[in-house]
Amino acid sequence: MKKQIALTLVLLLFLNVVSAQEKKWEVDLKEQLYQVGWIEQTNTGAIIASGAKGLLAMDNITGETVWHNQELKGVDRNSFLNIDGLPLFYVEYVPIAGKTRGIIVNSSNGDILFDTKDEGYRIKNFNILADQGIILFELLKNKERILMSFSLKTWEEQWITSVGEVGGMLKKLFSGSFIDQGPYFNKKGDLLVGVEEKIYAIDIASGNINWEYEAKKDIKALVYSEGNSSLYVGVKKSNKLIVLDPNTGSDITPGKLKLRGTLIDIRPDNDNNLILVETEGFNIIDPATNEFKWKKSFKIDFLDEVIPYENNFIAIGKDEDDSTISLVDNNGDKIWTSKVKGYAYYTSVIPKGVMYISTERSNILDFEKGKDVWDKDVKFKSIPAVTYDTKEDKVILFENKKAYKFDLKTGLVTLFAEDVELEKVKRKTPLVAEYIEGAGYLINADQHMSLLEPSGQVKYTKYYEPPSNLNGLKGLAQLGLNIAGVDLDIQGSLDNISTLSSISNGAYVISSDQNGARTETSNIASMYVGSGDNMATVFEITKSRYYNSKTVKDHKFIVTKVKADDKPTIHKIYMINKKTGNPDTEISLLDKTPNYLIDEIDNVVFINENNHLITSYKF
User: Fold this and answer.
1) Which of 115, 95, 117, 116 has its CA nearest to residue 105?
2) Which of 61, 215, 575, 577 has the most CB atoms within 10 Å of its CB?
3) Environment class of residue 391 by beta-carbon count within 10 Å: exposed (0-12), middle (13-18) or buried (19+)?
4) Alpha carbon distance 373, 354 (integer Å)
């Protein structure tokens, strides 16, 4: 036992030595900023440090100061917002004299590209519209809603347009997007957005409002069909579908398109018709006439989704206690209907039928009669962790101590592990899964890691005490599920539903799979505007940085609290090998509640210690 303890101490000392040797740089910012309140990392990799003497950017490779703006004192960290895919960020600060200001900064050189000055604007959300060469910002000024067009070519504000006022105290305090529907673009190039009970058509070049439409109540659905140049409008508590000319705003509704419920969606079918989906049923709209093809809509309670399948349709209704799945022919007649016990929070069409997972049971309904394919239901008490085994060509599902292999082609499901004990994992733990090539399936959460081998054996299972302060960490947990206003007691990570949907649609290697698989993809780390010879580069991340972010993913970073009987509690950052479960290296944190950043792209950690000493460690 003594030998084992001694060996452990030697190993820990060795790891600390390795960490010390891997220190890339250390910079004391006390003279420049006096006290560093926080650090953040921009899309270019630069480290932004905020202090009592201003805001500065540090080169993440060398630690050198790239720029320093001494006027930007005491910047609010909660306002920091990276503009996706661009070397831009937004922050708010309070000048010595004046109101709170919001600014857009070029992280490469510190240039302020937009300043609200004393206008009182606050940026709340944005959409990058690359085809139009702009960023569409959503701003609030007191209760006034404002849209701003920001050019990706000139990096300057193009126009600012008001789109009404926020109503109610709760909405005034809201901080998300106020665009309820859209944005869309009509054939003239006008920007179409729905905000509460209004629709605005805005000239994309000038910001002038060409037309606006006001409904009696809030617009719950707005769908633009480019094929027949029609804008379909569903109004709250209205039983009439409105059709507008998207170029003029004129009402072109042919007679009365009555609804039995609330409009959910309009989407094309396999014959280029339009499927109108409402809460009480669905029908087919002829795009040439904008009239229903069926005399009566196919009725299904609590309709949530319609999926075109060959020449038929699969309609899915979802309620808290029961769900309904129907196969409907192209004349609107029922082929079969099956009741499903529980809320079906996942459904997908696979070669053997319609697969569903509900709060009570899971199975596959065959196409012929809608009968169960599996003799015995697979019951999930929580959302299963999902990944895809590329070698075996099977979906892996893990939930409640059981692991399954599911063949999408044959529909066969096999239980390959049961009574799997994972350290400090409960039903409510939001587990996610990841296929590790040559090793098995990583089952993990924020502070937990386990590796399940394809044979069903657990190679390792470990839990790491969470740190005293989770500042700087992005949580994976999503406890509970609230879909379409239905409050359900389902535990797990909602990411698993989108993962399973992607796998069912043939996307076997998606962004959440960090197994080093090489995938052909467009360079999403770059942005260009224009076309042909007029194509202009807006921004490019270096190839090595993008490549690393997709392929060097054989470790998991975990920050943990380490307790000892005779020593003070300390915090450490581990870089844990996913195949072995052992830390390949570690870094000790001096502060009890440290401010740190983990750059998983370059395998680097940046630590702000004692509010002035910034250190970079290479893992």
Assistant:
1) 115
2) 575
3) exposed
4) 10
8 Å CB contact between 461 and 422: yes
Which DSSP letter does residue 287 get?
T
CA distance 173 to 436: 44
Residue with tokens 């099977």: 394
Amino acid identity for residue 558 in this structure: I
Q: In sequence order, which residues have a C-beta less than 8 Å from that of residue 9 and are 6 or more positions away?
A: none
Most confident of 167-176, 491-500, 537-546, 584-593: 584-593
Q: Per the structure block, which two tokens stand in for 554?
A: 């054989």
Contact yes or no for 47/58 (Cβ under 8 A) = yes
Best CA proximity match to 140, nearest among 197, 192, 94, 178: 178
Q: What is the mean pLDDT of residues 175-204?
A: 92
Contact (Cβ atoms closer than 8 angstroms) between residue 558 and residue 464: yes
Domain boundaries, the chain: 381-516
- Residue 339 CB neighbours (<10 A): 10
CB 278 within 8 A of CB 299: no
Residue 490 is predicted with a pLDDT of 52
3-state secondary structure 556-598: EEEEEEEEECCEEEEEEEEEEECCCCCEEEEEEECCCCCEEEE
In sequence order, what are the residues at sequence separation of 6 or more whose Cβ sits closer than 8 angstroms to the Cβ of residue 116? 101, 102, 103, 122, 139
